Amino acid sequence: MTEAISLTVNGRSYELAIPPDTPLLTVLRNDLELNGPKYGCGLGECGACSVLIDGMAARACVLPVSVAVGHEILTLEGLASEGRLDPVQSAFIEAQAAQCGYCLNGMIISVRALLNHTPRPSSAQLRAALEYNLCRCGTHVEILEAASRAVAISTAESPEAPHE
Amino acid sequence: MSDRQPPTSRAEPTELPAPLASPKRFGVAVRPPHYAWNGEHFVSDRLVAVDRTSVAGLPGQVEIVIEGDFVGVVADSLAAAQDAARHLRLEWRAPSGAGQGDATPLPVATGAASRELAAEYAKTASSHRHDYGWPSRLRWGDTPGWVVADCSDQRLMLWGETITPEALIHDLMTLTGLPAERIELYGTTPTRVSGLGRHCGDDAAVDAALMSRQLGCSVAVWLDAAYTRDVHALGQAQCITLSADLAESGDIADYRYHQAHASGDIAAVGLWLCGRPPARRTVAGRTPFFSPYDFNNAQLTTRRDDHGTGRRNEHLAEIQQAFARESFLDEVAHESGQDPLMLRLRHLDDARGVELISSVSQRARWGEALSSATTTSPDRLRGRGFAYSQLPDRHQRIPEGVRSAWIADVEVNRITGDVTLTRLVVGQDAGPEVDTDRLQQTLQARVLGSARPLLGRDPAFDEWGDGSKDDKNVDPTPGGALAIHTAMATKESADAEATTSLLQPLDDVNLAPGVAVIANALFDATGVRFRQPPFTAGRVRQALHDQADSLQEETPGRPTNRPGRRWLKAAALTAVAGTAVMAWPWKGAITPINRPAANLYSAETIERGRLVAAAGDCAACHTVEGGQENAGGRAFETPFGTLYSTNLTPDEGTGIGQWSYAAFERAMRHGISRDGKHLYPAFPYTAFAKISDTDMQALYAYLMAQPAVSAETPANALSFPFNIRPLMAGWNALYHDPSPFEPDPGQSELYNRGAYLAEGLGHCSACHTPRNAMGAERSGQYAFSGAMVDGWEAPPLNRLSRSPIPWSEASLYDYLRHGASSLHGAASGPMAPVVAGLGELPEYDVRALAHYVAVQMDAPAGDSETVQADAAVRIATAQSGPAGMEEGERLFEGACASCHMESGAPSFTSAQISLALNTNLHSQHPDNVIQSILGGVHADHVPGLGNMPGFADSFSDSQVVNLTAYLRARFAPDQAPWRNIESRVTTIRQHNNSPSPTPNATTRRG
Lengths: 164, 1006
Ligand code: FES
Ligand code: FES
Hints:
The complex is a heterodimer of chains A (164) and B (1006). Chain A is an alpha+beta fold. Chain A is 37% helix and 15% strand. In chain A, helix 3 (87-94) packs across helix 6 (140-157) and helix 4 (104-117) runs parallel beside helix 6 (140-157). With 1006 residues, chain B is α+β, with helices and mostly antiparallel strands. Chain B folds into four domains: 13-30 and 46-93 and 138-231, Aldehyde oxidase/xanthine dehydrogenase, molybdopterin binding domain (Aldehyde Oxidoreductase, domain 4); 351-548, Aldehyde oxidase/xanthine dehydrogenase, molybdopterin binding domain (Aldehyde Oxidoreductase, domain 4); 603-735; 749-993, no CATH class. In chain B, the strands form nine sheets. In chain B, strands 5-6-1-12-9-10-11 form a seven-stranded mixed sheet. A four-stranded mixed sheet of chain B has the order 8-13-14-15, with helices on both faces. In chain B, helix 15 crosses helix 19 and helix 21 (749-761) packs across helix 25 (843-857). One FE2/S2 (inorganic) cluster binds at residues 39-42, 44-49, 59, 61 of chain A. Chain B: It comes from Marinobacter azerbaijanicus. Chain B: InterPro entries: Ald_Oxase/Xan_DH_a/b, AldOxase/xan_DH_Mopterin-bd_sf, Cyt_c-like_dom, Cyt_c-like_dom_sf, Cytochrome_c-type_DH. Chain B: This is C-type cytochrome.
C-alpha cells in the first residue's frame, strides 16, 4: 500500500507516494534518479549503496524509506558544494583509486562519515572505518592511500581543527 | 511532551515570581509501599535504608531528599527525576505494634469510626438507617499540571491550583513554621475554590514545599495520575449515620443524626510522612448543625475530637451534612413510597421555603416524567433528583440564612459509566439580584468544574488512559455537551442590601445541596444509591454491574454460578441484544440479526473499542499479509493441523454482521460461534473471557462500526480428533475457566491494570505459556514459562527468563513502548506487530503491563550498576570470536559484522544493541536466531527501529548452521552449544516454505 512520504535529499524535499517499506536505495535510484549509490549485495554486506543520513553512514539497501523520513539524506551527488568537490572526492581522483569504480561511492561516503565524526583519524581508524566496505577488484591499497590523502586535504583546509 | 514544560505557559507570567516561572529543579515523591489513613490514624511503612548508590551515575544531578518516611528524588528535569525514582532502591519495614503508638497492622481498614458507630446504632432498631461517607481527597481533575514551590527561612511561594487554599496554607504553616502572611499562593483561581474538600494537588504542593525547603531552591512537581494513590490511601474523612422511623401517617419520627468527626479534612500525605502531623485536638464549642426541617424527637450528635485535621472546616461540614441529610430523605421517601419532594414539604414549617420549593418544582416540571424521546442513544439512562437546604448567610446580611432548592436531571451512559448533568434548576431565596450567567459559570466551575471533582474519572483496572490529556487516547470528555439551564426563582429579602449581589462570589452555602441533588438523580436514573462522592465513571459503572449481579441473586431458581451471572449482566446491560435474554443455550445457534446501525453506539464507546482492539491485537491474527484489516484468512500451523482466522468485519454473509452482541460475547468468552459450533482455542477465548463487560461491549461497537469486507474463510485442515468440533465442548469443560477478571485487592492499581491487560485482552499467555498435549495452556508454575509458537520461541516471562542481563521493570517498559531495550535487544518475529499494536495504547497501560510482567519475573525497578557493568563485560568479551570456526567467522564478518560490530564511526544502520546481550542467543532453543537469519527482522512499523534483511535466499542450510553455531559460541560463551541446529534449520525452512537456495540462485545477482 502506498503512503505519502516526504524525504529531504541533498537539501531538497520530495513528496512521494510509495509503499513505506520500499528500500531507500530503490527510491533514490528509481524515483529520484540519484545513481551515485550503487546496488551491490542488497543485504547490507558490501557498502556500495551507502549514503549519509544526518552525517552518519547508512546502508540504503536495508533501510525502509519510512525510517529515513525526517532525516537529512546526503548522497554522493550532494557532496560537492558551490561547484567545489568535497576533499574526499578530490583525494580519490588524485589518487586514481579505482579499478571498476563500483565500490567507490561506499568508500567515499564512509571516509566522509568518519571525518564528520573524527576529523583527524589515525590510519588504524581509517582501516577500521573501511573494514566492512567490499571491493571486488582488490583496489584496497589505492583506496587507503586516497583516504589518507583526504585526511591531509581536509586538515589543510581547516587549520583550526584541533590537534590530536 | 510539550505539556511538560515548566508552568510559564499556564501562568499569568506578569504576576509570577521568577523562581516559580522557571523552577530550578524537578522533584518526584516516592511513597512507601503501604500507607493509609484508617479513619483514626495515619499508618505507613517505615523507611529503613536508602541505597544512594542505586542512583549514582544517573544523569541530571540527582539528589535524594529524606525527611522521616518522606522520600523525594530531585533532578534537573522531570524525566531524569522520574528515571532516578524508578532506579532508587529503598528498604521499608511494615510498622510493627511494638513501640509505635500510632501503628495498626496493615492492610488498613477504612472507617474504623463507622464500625464503632454501627455497633452503637445496632441497639436502636430504626426502620430506616444509612451511612454516608465523604472522601478525604478528590482527584485533581483531568489534566496533569505543575506544582512549584520555592521555600526559604523567610517565605514560601507556591504555584499550583488548589481548591482549598485555607487548608493548604494551614498545612504549609505546620510544615515550615512560617506565619500565614509569609506564604504566597499563586495560580489558584478563586472561582474554582469549592467547599467540596481537598484534592491531591495539596499533597503535591506539600511534596514540592518539602523538597524545596531542604534543597533551598525552587522545585517543580508534576501532578498526575500517580497522585491517585493518595486519594485511595487517605480513604474516608467523614462518616455520617442517619436513622429514622416512620409514623403511621408517613411522617418522620425519631430522626437521629450522628457524625463521626467534628469536621473532616485530612492533612497532606507529605506532612504525615515527614513526621510533622498536625496537632490533635478536641474541637471546642458545639458543632453547628444545619437543618431546615422540623422532625419529631430529633437527635443530633457528633464526636468532638478532630482527628487528623488540626482545623475546623465549617464550609465542608455544611456540605457534608446537606449531602447526608438530603440523600437520606430521598431514600426514606423511596423506601416508603412517597414523593421525595412531598416528604420534605411535610416537615418544612417555613412558608418562604415552601414557596421556593413549589416555584422551583413548577419550573422544572417535577411531576412530569422525563421524556425518553430526547435520549441520545440507547446506552443512556435518565433520572431526576431534588435537594434543599437552608444555611446561615456567611455575610450576615440575611438573618434567616439562605434557602436553596435544586432539581437536577442527569444522563448516565451505562456502558462507560459517564454521568452528564443535562439540566439544573436552582432556586434561592436570598439577595435582590441574581446574575444567572454568573451562577451558571460558578456551578460549572465548582460543582462540575473543569476539574470536575465530582464527576471526573477514577482509574479502574479496565479504565483506558490515566485520565490525563497528555495521553493521545484519552476518552472524550462526557461533560462536553453539558447544558445547565438555570431557572432562578428568587425572592426579595427584606433585609438584603439592594445593591450587592450575593454572587460575588457565590457563597458556598448555596452549593450545599449540589452534591445530594446529583446523588438523588443518579438513583432515579439507575436505581443505585451513591452514599459517598465522587460519582466517577468507574464507580458508576461498577455499581451498575454489582446491581445486575444482585438482581440475579434475588431471582429464585436461577443458578448463581459465574457464567450465569455474566449472562444476566450482559442481558441487562445490552441494548443491542434487544430482548431480555436471561441465558443463552450452551450450544445451538443464536438468531442472526440485521447488522446494527452504525450510529447505534456513541463515538466514545467506539473509540474505547478501538483501544480494546489495539490491546488485543485482533488484526495481527485476523489479517493476511497485505490483506484487508480483520478480514481473516490467515493460516496458523498448529500441532493439530492448519487453522484459518475468520472474518471479523461486519459483512453479513462472510463476517460477523449478523452476530448479536450475545453471540459475540459467547464467542469471546466461551469459544462458541454464533451458529453454535465450537471454536478452537487457537483463538484465545480462554484469555478473552477475562475482558470486562464494558470493554467487550465497546469492542463489539467498534467492530460493527468498521467497513464490511466480503471474504470467505478457508476451511480448516485439522487432524483427528481435533477435526471433530463437538469434542471441543469436552475440552472446554476440562481446560476453560470462563470467569471474569477479578482485581487482586492486595495489589496496586497499576498491577491490576497490567494483570487485566496481560491475562485478558493482551492474551500474553496464548504465546508465552506452554500447552499440554491437548493444546491447553498449562497452569501453575508453567504459567508464562515460555513456549514455541508458529516456528518462534516465545521466551519465558517468569523467573525462568534466560536473558543474559536480567530484565528490570524499566527495560520491560522500554521494550514494550519503544520496541527495544538497550540491555536486551529489539522486538522481532511475531512480537514486532504486538509492540506496534501497543503503540496505540496510553502510556499508563504500557507502564502497567511492564509492571505486571516485572512482578512475574521478580525483576527490580531499574538496572543497577552491577548489571550495567556485567553488560559492558559481555560486550567486551565478544569483541573477538572463538577459534576454529572459520566458516562461521567468515560468514559473520562478511554478512553481519558491517551492522553488528562497531567500525569506529557512528552509523545510521548499525544494530545499536550488541548481540552479546541478545536473549535469543542465550536461549535453550536456536529457533529465533535461525528465524532471524533466514527471514530477517522487520520492525519498521515500530518508529525508530530498523530492518535486518533475511538471508534465506543467499545462505545454504549448512551456512546457516555454521553461522548459528558461531554466533552462539561468540556471543553466548557461557551457554552450552546448541545440539539440534541442523534439524531446526530444516524444519523452519519447511515451515516458512523457504527452501535452501540452489547454487544458481545464490549467483543470480552476479
Ligand atoms: S548494496 Fe547495500 S550494502 Fe551492499
Ligand atoms: S573498484 Fe571495483 S569494486 Fe572496488
